[in-house]
Structures are given as C-alpha cells and as structure tokens.
C-alpha cells in the first residue's frame, strides 16, 4: 500500500515537472516570436506569465520535500526527487531567460531589430528541442537520449558564435548600431543559456539512472 502511494506521488511530481517544462518552452518561443514581430503586448504577457512558472517551482519543491518527509524514499526514488529539485531550478531560470528577452523587446519599443532575425529564432528552436528531449529522456530514463542532448549543445553554441561575430561586424562598421546590436547579443546569450540548462537537465537524467554525476563540457553557474 505504501509503495502504491509513493508511486502515485512520484508520478505526480513527474507530471508537474512536465507541465512546468511545457510552460517554459512556450515562454521561450513566445519571447522570440514577440521580438521578431515587434509584438509588445505579447512581450508583456511573457513577463507577466513568468510569475506562474515561479509559483510552480515553489509548489513542486514543497511537494518534493513532503514526499521525502512522509514516504522516506531510498535509492532511485530518492535520486529522482533530488533530480526534480534540481531540474525545477533550471526550468525556472530558463523562464527567467525568456522573461529577460521579453523585457529586452520592451526596451526596444517600436524600434525594429538591427536586421531580420534568422539565427536567433533558430537558437530558440534548438534550445526548445533540447529542453523537450531532456524531459523525454527523464520520462524514459534514457541515458543515451540524455547524452545526445549534451552533444546537441555544441550546435546552439555555434549559432551563438555566429550571431556574435555578425553583430560585432555591424558595430565595428557603424557605431550607431551598437545599442541595437547589443540588445540582440543579450537575447542570443539568454538563448545560449537556455541550451546550457537543458544540458543540466540531461545530466540529472544520467545521475538518476546511473547514480553518477557527469559533466557535458559546460560551465556550471
């Protein structure tokens, strides 16, 4: 009976994490879409909805602590809860990066971006793909899929480097573009960090399955 109750509570935590991940994915997508279309109302909505994700993190944390206190999980069950507690922090910070991009869009006001956005939407799509794949790996307890997310981080890093070089060229050729180029650099950096945090989640999946923490070659901060 106790095992059934624990299983239900663990499933509830998983469902909550997946819901939170879905909200984060939508926030990242909407923040870049709003920037691309100069939709300030959508940007404001992304900022406002960040509070929902913040509350979800708090609620999942409280549920996780309650499960530890009342069910006394051990071994892989305990590792799962520890993984959840770390994953929700990364999810909340991903949402913060999306919120940051929405705020950058609002700072720009009606001013159009320096150039048509091509690589930045690609970065957002790749970051969301990594997020989705890392959570799928969590559900399936799939170490191979988790390690592929780590490998995919190189692609989003390469896109960031490309955006950085292109915007730096704009700034060097025409100093009047510095403000607009800097705004886009901030956006690209936020998206690069979303990719890094998806990698963190993948590392937690490896920890859950193997009991060992691994690094995927990214800086942890």
Would you write up a description of this structure?
With 221 residues, this protein is an all-alpha fold. The chain has one domain (2-210): Up-down Bundle (Methane Monooxygenase Hydroxylase, Chain G, domain 1), CATH 1.20.58.220. It contains six helices and no strands.
What's the topology here?
Elements: H1 2-37, H2 40-71, H3 75-108, H4 119-140, H5 143-173, H6 178-210
Indicate the radius of gyration in whole angstroms: 19 Å
Helix/strand order: HHHHHH
The CATH class is Mainly Alpha
Number of helical segments? 6
Assign an overall shape. elongated
Write out key terms for the chains shown.
0% strand, 221 residues, 6 helices, disordered C terminus, mainly alpha
Structure at a glance:
The chain is mainly alpha-helical and 221 residues long.
């Amino acid at each position: 009976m106790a095992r059934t109750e624990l299983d239900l509570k663990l499933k509830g935590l998983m469902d909550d994490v997946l819901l939170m991940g879905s909200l984060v994915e939508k926030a990242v997508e909407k923040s870049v879409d709003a920037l691309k279309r100069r939709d300030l109302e959508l940007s404001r909505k992304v900022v406002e909805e960040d509070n929902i994700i913040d509350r979800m993190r708090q609620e999942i944390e409280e549920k996780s602590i309650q499960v530890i206190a009342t069910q006394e999980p051990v071994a892989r069950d305990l590792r799962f809860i520890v993984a959840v507690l770390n994953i929700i922090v990364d999810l909340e910070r991903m949402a913060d990066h999306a919120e940051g991009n929405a705020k950058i869009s609002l700072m720009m006001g009606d001013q159009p971006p320096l150039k048509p956005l091509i690589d930045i939407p690609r970065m957002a799509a790749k970051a969301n793909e990594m997020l989705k794949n890392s959570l799928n790996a969590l559900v399936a307890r799939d170490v191979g899929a988790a390690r592929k997310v780590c490998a995919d981080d190189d692609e989003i890093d390469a896109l960031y480097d490309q955006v950085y070089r292109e915007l730096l060229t704009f700034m060097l050729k025409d100093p009047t573009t510095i403000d607009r180029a800097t705004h886009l650099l901030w956006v690209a950096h936020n998206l690069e960090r979303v990719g890094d945090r998806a990698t963190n989640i993948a590392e937690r999946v490896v920890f859950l399955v193997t009991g060992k923490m691994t690094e995927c070659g990214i800086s942890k901060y």
